[in-house]
Amino acid sequence: MESSASIELAKHILLVFGIILALGTFSGLLARLMRVPDVVVFLLVGLLLGPGVLGLIDIKANSAINQLILIFGSSYILFDGGASIRIRVLKEVWVTVAVIATIGVIITAVMTGVAAYYILDVPMIVALLLGSVLASTDPATLVPVFKQIRIRERVAQTVMTESAFNDAMGAILTFTVLGVAMGTGDFSAGDALLGLLKQSVLGVLIGGILGYLAILLIAHEKFGFLSEYAPVVTLMAVIGAYMGADGLHSSGFMAVFVFGIMIGNQEAFGLQRAHHDEKILEDFILTTALIMRMFIFILLGTQVDFVLMNQYLLAGAALVAIFMLVARPLTVFLCAAPDRHARWTRNELLFMCWTRETGVIPGALAGLLLGMKAPGAEIIASVTFIAILMTILIQATTTKWLARRLGLLLNDRA
Questions:
Q1: Tell me: the pLDDT tens digits for 352-409?
Q2: Burial level of 312, CB count in 10 A (0-12/13-18/19+)?
Q3: Which has the least CB within 10 A, 40, 175, 224, 341?
C-alpha cells in the first residue's frame, strides 16, 4: 500500500508539472501578444488554478516540492540575471548599488513600518517586522522583466544588481527585528552590520571561486575539457554555489548571482568560447530560466490566501501604495542621487523609484514568520500577498510604458 501511495503521489505531482508547463507555454505566448512581462500572466494563471478558484493545483507553500522549486528556480533566475551583468557597467554604478542595497533597505523598512503603525494600528515592533519583510526587492521578478524589456543598460543592471544584493540585508533585518519581537534578542546595529558583511563577503567569494573554476573548465584552451557539457556545468555550479554559501551561513542568492557575473564576463579573464558553443549555452540558460519562471510564479499565484488577504485588503492596499509611492522614491533619491560618480539623470532616478517589484523572497519570509507563529504573522502575510499582487500587476506591466516615456527604452519597435 505504501508503494502504491508513493506512485499515486508521484503521478499527481507529474500531472501538476504537466499542467504548469502546458498553461505556462500558452501564457508566455499570450504575454508576448499583450506585450507585458510573462511573470504577470503566470501569476494571474496561478490565481485561477489555485484552491481559491478552480482548485486544479494545491501545492502547499511549506511543502518540500515547493521549497525545492523556490530555491532552485530563484537561484537559476538570479544566475541568469548575473550572466547579463557587465563588469564595466558595475564599475560605474557600484556606489549606488552598495548604498541602496544596505542603507536603502533600512530606510524603506523604517518608513514602511511607521506607515504600518498608523494605518494598521499594530504594535510598532510588528509594524517594523512588516516593513523589514517588504523592504527588499525581488530578483526573481525583476530579472525576467529586464530580460524581456530592453532598458538603458546601466539602469537595468543597477536595479537587477540591487535586487540580488539586498535580499541578504532584508533577511538579516527581518530576523533581527523578529528576535526583538519574540523576546529572544536585542537589536544591535553592530551585529547586524557584521552579519551583513559576513554574508556578503562569503557569498561573493564562493560565487567568484566557483565561477572562475567553471569558466576554466568550459572555456580554457588547455583545461576546458568540459566545454561540450557547459549547460550541465552551470546546473552543477548553481546548486554548488547556493548550497556552499548556505552551508557557511551566507547568502546563497548572492553567490549564484556572482557566479552568473563570472560566466557572463569570461572575456574579462582572457577566456573566450566559440560562437556556436556560446549560443548553445545561451539558449539552454534562456529555456531553463523560462521554465523556472513558469513554476515559481504560477505556484506563487496558487498559494495566495484570499481569505487572509481580504481581512486587511483596504488598509493593506493603502499601506502598499505609500510603500510604492513614498518609501521607495525617497529611498532612491536619498541613496542614489548623491552618487556623483554615476551622475544619475532625473529620468533614471524616477524609473528606479517605480521599479521594485515584491515577489518570491518577501513571500518566503512571510511564510517563515507564519510557520514560526511570529507576532502579527497573519497581518504580515496578508499585506505581503497584497504587495506581491499590486507591485507585479501594476509596476511590472507599466515598466515598458514608463521607460518609453522617460526615454530609457532601447530598440523600441512598438
A1: 999 888 877 787 777 777 767 788 888 888 898 889 888 888 988 898 899 999 999 8
A2: buried
A3: 341
- Give me the pLDDT at residue 117, please: 94
**Do 85 and 264 form a contact (C-beta atoms < 8 A)?**
yes
Q: How far apart are CA 173 and CA 11, in angstroms?
A: 41
For the chain, what are the domain ranges?
A: 2-405
Q: Please, what's the b/e burial string for 142-161 (b: 16 or more CB within 10 A of its CB; e: otherwise)?
A: bbbbbbbbebbbbbbbbbbb
Contacts of 286 (CB under 8 A, 6+ apart): 80
* Measured CA distances, 188 to 113, 125, 184, 193 (Å): 18, 15, 13, 9
Mean pLDDT across 131-135: 90
Tell me the per-residue pLDDT of 302-346, one tens digit each, with 9 for 90 and over: 887 788 788 889 999 999 999 999 999 999 999 998 888 888 999
The span from the CA of 254 to the CA of 241, in Å, is 9
Using alpha carbons, list the distances in angstroms from residue 405 to 35, 82, 400.
16, 27, 9
176-200 burial, b at 16+ Cβ within 10 Å, e below that, comes to bbbeebeeeeeeeeeebeebbebbb
Cα–Cα–Cα angle for 366, 367, 373, rounded to 5 degrees: 90
Task: Of 296, 306, 302, 290, give the one whose Cα is nearest residue 360.
Answer: 296
Q: Give the C-alpha distances (Å, rounded to integers) separating 376 from 41, 318, 373, 384.
A: 31, 18, 8, 12
- pLDDT of 411 > 50? The answer is yes
Question: Looking at the domain that runs over 2-405, which CATH code has it been given?
Answer: 1.20.1530.20
For residues 142 and 39, what is the distance between their CA atoms, to the nearest angstrom?
A: 9
Instruction: Name residue 17's amino acid.
Output: F
Q: What CA–CA distance (Å, rounded) separates 12 from 384?
A: 29
AA letter at 132: S
